[in-house]
Amino acid sequence: MEDRRIRVLIAKPGMDGHDRGAKVVARALRDAGMEVIYTGLRQTADMIVNAALQEDVDAIGLSVLSGAHMHYFREVTQLLKDKGASDIILFGGGIIPDQDLPELEALGVGRVFTPGASTQDAAEYLKEAVQRRWEALGDA
Fold first, then answer.
1. Cβ atoms < 10 Å from Cβ of 133
2. Who's near 29: CB < 8 A, 6+ residues apart?
3. pLDDT for 83-94, tens place per residue?
4. Can you state the angle between helices 69-82 and 45-55, rounded to 10 degrees?
5. Which residues on adjacent β-strands are paired with residue 127?
6. Model pLDDT, residue 14
7. pTM for the complete prediction?
């Protein structure tokens, strides 16, 4: 894992214009040694998945504060499946009610970081999850 940097795409889907949290996470992941691509505000699921494929990322992080998290996670998950890229790790953060976490997990969302979560926890999660991905793909 020392020879290869983890590549993560951080995205803000939908019309939500608040991206401070996404930028904080992006900076923390960079500080942890990862290569981070931040797509900016108001991204569609198609834009997010296409960018992830073009950038050959290991993981996609969605930041959702608008309450539309179920819609966006479902849409991104389906597009990843449709494009043969369901091995890309999908995680997220934002204002997401606890009662939605089991359904997100069932969709295949690896982890959700809600307000107060540690950026160090997010970095550690990604290091472990990506290592498992690389081993499964024979890239470790």
1. 19
2. 8, 10, 36, 119, 122, 123, 126
3. 999 999 999 999
4. 50
5. none
6. 83
7. 0.94
Range of the domain at 23: 7-134
31-54 pLDDT per residue, tens? 999 999 999 899 999 999 999 999
Tokens matching residue 113: 């970081």
Q: For residue 70, what are the contacts with CB-CB under 8 A and spacing of at least 6?
A: 100, 103, 104
Nearest to 56 by CA among 125, 3, 107, 130: 130
Number of domains in the chain: 1
Write down the pLDDT at residue 140.
63
Is 11 a domain residue?
Answer: yes
Share of the chain above pLDDT 90, in %: 84
- Dihedrals phi, psi of 52, to nearest 5 degrees: -60, -40
Is 72 part of a structural domain of the chain?
A: yes
Q: Is the dihedral of CA 55, 5, 8, 32 positive or negative?
A: negative
HEC readout, 12-30: CECCCCCCHHHHHHHHHHH
Per the listing, tokens 């996609």 go with 60
